[in-house]
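User: Hi! I have a protein structure encoded as tokens and I'd like to know what sequence might fold into it. I'm fairly new to this, so please keep things simple.
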């Protein structure tokens, strides 16, 4: 039985490699039952040979950034993949310094069919840290804050979330009385619980990566918008709008903004004009 907790990943806070990952923005994706080549092909990545360790991966990505003249808006990147043993067979670990973009959702669903995909990411200096668990083509659980989960089975991981150290109640709500935890370390522990793979600095640094240039992904069509805010007092505001509602409101605002401005002038009455002349 795997009893790993956030404490087992305390090393990330003293690791130069993990500091680089957090500052640059990264995604680690673990895929069961697929080879590195299969995964990169599914990602539509252009083969870029191999790289020794994270040094080789970072160098290859730096070369690509130079090729695009450091274009800030270019979201293509070089990903590295290698095979690693885990729970119920071999897995492929994919590491990308991608600003936290991650593998496209449709691709993750495809790769998880008949297996499992677990991913976690950070978008580089900004406080967005995501976790995804796909099983047999379905997004089972995803979250940024573990107390606000989504997916087809958002509550299934509550026992594991609590065991690795997240301060949650039995119902999966934030537990104000529990000790806080290094949430990134807890996410890595959760990923290990689901994959059987202990990610270490040496595992990432010493692997031989199969490299691929991942192209920019087309924007996915959106079906709605959600605002979900919890204030410092625990009061939560959640509002949802469908795509049609947002489009209708946008069209109405556009019409109002483009409407001609009409300035009216009230002509004084005959009585007012007479009084004005009398005053003169």
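Assistant: Happy to help. Inverse folding works backwards from shape to sequence: for each of the 280 positions I chose a residue that suits the local structure. Here it is:
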């Amino acid at each position: 039985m795997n009893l790993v907790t956030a404490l087992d990943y305390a090393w990330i806070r003293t690791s130069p490699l993990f500091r680089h990952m957090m500052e640059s923005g990264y995604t680690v994706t673990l895929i069961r039952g697929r080879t590195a080549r299969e995964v990169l092909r599914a990602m539509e990545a252009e083969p870029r040979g191999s790289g020794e360790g994270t040094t080789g991966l970072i160098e290859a990505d730096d070369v690509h950034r130079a090729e695009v003249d450091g274009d800030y808006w270019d979201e293509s990147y070089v990903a590295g993949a290698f095979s690693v043993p885990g729970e119920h067979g071999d897995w492929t670990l994919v590491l990308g310094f991608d600003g936290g973009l991650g593998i496209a959702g449709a691709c993750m669903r495809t790769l998880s069919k008949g297996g499992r995909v677990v991913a976690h990411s950070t978008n580089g200096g900004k406080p967005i840290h995501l976790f995804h668990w796909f099983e047999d083509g379905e997004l089972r659980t995803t979250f940024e804050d573990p107390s606000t989960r989504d997916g087809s089975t958002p509550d299934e991981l509550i026992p594991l979330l609590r065991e690795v150290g997240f301060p949650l109640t039995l119902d999966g709500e934030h537990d104000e009385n529990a000790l806080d935890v290094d949430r990134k370390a807890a996410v890595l522990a959760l990923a290990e619980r689901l994959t059987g793979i202990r990610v270490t600095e040496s595992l990432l640094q010493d692997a031989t990566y199969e490299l691929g240039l991942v192209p920019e992904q087309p924007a996915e069509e959106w079906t709605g918008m959600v605002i979900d805010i919890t204030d410092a007092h625990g009061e939560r505001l959640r509002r949802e709008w469908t795509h049609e509602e947002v489009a209708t409101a946008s069209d109405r605002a556009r019409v109002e903004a483009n409407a001609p401005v009409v300035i009216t002038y009230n002509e004084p009455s005959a009585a007012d004009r007479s009084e004005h002349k009398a005053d003169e």
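A useful reference point when you look it over: The chain has a mean pLDDT of 88. Feel free to ask if any position seems puzzling.
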